[in-house]
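$ run holo --ligand "(2R)-3-sulfolactic acid" --emit tokens
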Amino acid sequence: MSLSVALHPGGLDPESLDGRAVVVVDVLRASTTIVTALANGARAVIPVADEGEAGRLAATLDREATVLGGERGGRQLAGFALGNSPSAYTPDAVAGRTVVLTTTNGTAALVRASGAARLAVGALVNAAAAAVWLGRALDDGLDATVVCAGWQGRVALEDALCAGLLVDRLVGHDRAEPLDDGARIALGLYRGARDDLARALFGADHTRRLVALGAGDDVAACARLDTLDVVPVYRDRQLVAGQV
Ligand code: 3SL
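-- output --
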């Protein structure tokens, strides 16, 4: 088996998804939002890459039971009920409903990885559960890859840190070998920052963007390590809550 990290979505070879378990990470903020929505009782989250497609899909679903959420450049999309702040995905807003979600990088990365044998979502808030999910996939004989959503094709510090944390928790696993260079880089980054992960997160480029948009509080919410035990798993084109 092997454990690899794609530091940006372009590093994931769509031809290599067969027999592979993938965890997509977009700490700020899409993957944290997805985990939060499912932890707060959403029936499912449907990740959509394109804004127009998200609107069209939502229009085909039961209006009362559907929430349309999304952003571009961090700003809530016009006509959408919610943006991409995890704090907006409260039980009141999402319990019992299906969320159709489109975001700049996170949902696009999920769609890119959607051919994987198994696909799940990881964040700092559910890191422990996501690591268990990956360990089980390795136990079952799958290769495992953590895909960082990054920012517009580039590496994002917060995603690389979270990927390194997941690698760190799997390093003792007898099937998590060999690591690729992406996994070694992410692991080294995480181990250098783990004593004050929140501080590292607050130095990230995307933190500055979110603070400029008035969404600095979301960064603290996204930094709450291991607080949710939900692993969003992809089945029939939607993410549903898996527990570990
Ligand atoms: O890129 C994404 O998918 C988003 O998470 C970005 S933002 O945090 O909503 O700006």
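-- notes --
The domain at 3-239 is CATH 3.90.1560.10 (putative 2-phosphosulfolactate phosphatase).
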